[in-house]
């Protein structure tokens, strides 16, 4: 694995601890404190926030705790792409992501299969600085003791038509694979606590309705906000095609619940997408 072309991390030691032991201990504490309801059904996907661990780690842990006991070979992560780029969909051009907890190889065959079904180019880029995808990786590395490969997709064009095509193609590419989907998103940004809760609960209600098109309606009309709304919608469309029929909210909080400053907060939600048996 050391011979692989590794994507350099721009956030290790900043957004999460840069020392392996400290990082592992931090994640394990978050996971130990995550209390989940009874989840009845097969877990197809999770929705997790992507702020620095100090702010959203406790919420994110609820999403990843729902994956305990699973042994996927492949994790498909969909996130927003927060810098400008003229291309619609992006992925890393490197062979693997690296964190203090180790290396995660990109599944190039799964990526090619996705592109075949999608018919929209997925542009590989080098040395991206996108935090919203990488931030989920250490949690996955602590939850899953076995090796797994990664299918990373960063969405620049947060449009309903693109998200739906991506979700449908993902379902086709993953149908016969032992895979889990992860959607990376935060909720509203920099409103006061009361306003944030109103906006966030409306957006989470759209997530739970399992009607992905309503997510875009909330975003466009200002009823709720999620920076990764297209990632969530695409994962929901993919999960539906893979047989899922329920979205269950697991945890909600804001940055104010951590800092005590409720004047300008960011909202975080965790959810699981299930195929009820």
**Structural class estimated from helices and strands:** alpha/beta
| Series of secondary-structure elements, N-terminal to C-terminal | EHEHEEEEHEHHEHEEHHHEHE
State the helical fraction.
25-40%
Second rung of CATH, namely the architecture: 3-Layer(aba) Sandwich
**CATH top level class name:** Alpha Beta
Total count of strands: 12
Largest sheet: 9 strands, mixed
* CATH topology-level fold name: Protocatechuate 4,5-dioxygenase, Chain B
CATH superfamily: LigB-like
Number of helices: 10
The gyration radius over C-alpha positions equals: 17 Å
CA-based shape: globular
Bin the strand percentage. Answer: 15-25%
Task: Enumerate the spans where pLDDT stays under 50 for 5 or more consecutive residues.
Answer: none
| End-to-end gap | 39 Å
How many domains make up the coordinates? 1
Mean pLDDT score: 97
Q: How do the helices and strands line up, and which of them pair or pack?
A:
Elements: E1 6-7, H1 20-33, E2 42-48, H2 53-65, E3 74-80, E4 89-92, E5 96-99, E6 102-105, H3 108-118, E7 122-125, H4 131-134, H5 137-143, E8 149-155, H6 160-174, E9 179-184, E10 189-191, H7 193-209, H8 212-221, H9 229-241, E11 246-254, H10 256-259, E12 265-275
Parallel strand pairs: 1-5, 2-9, 3-8, 3-9, 4-7
Antiparallel strand pairs: 2-12, 4-8, 5-6, 10-12, 11-12
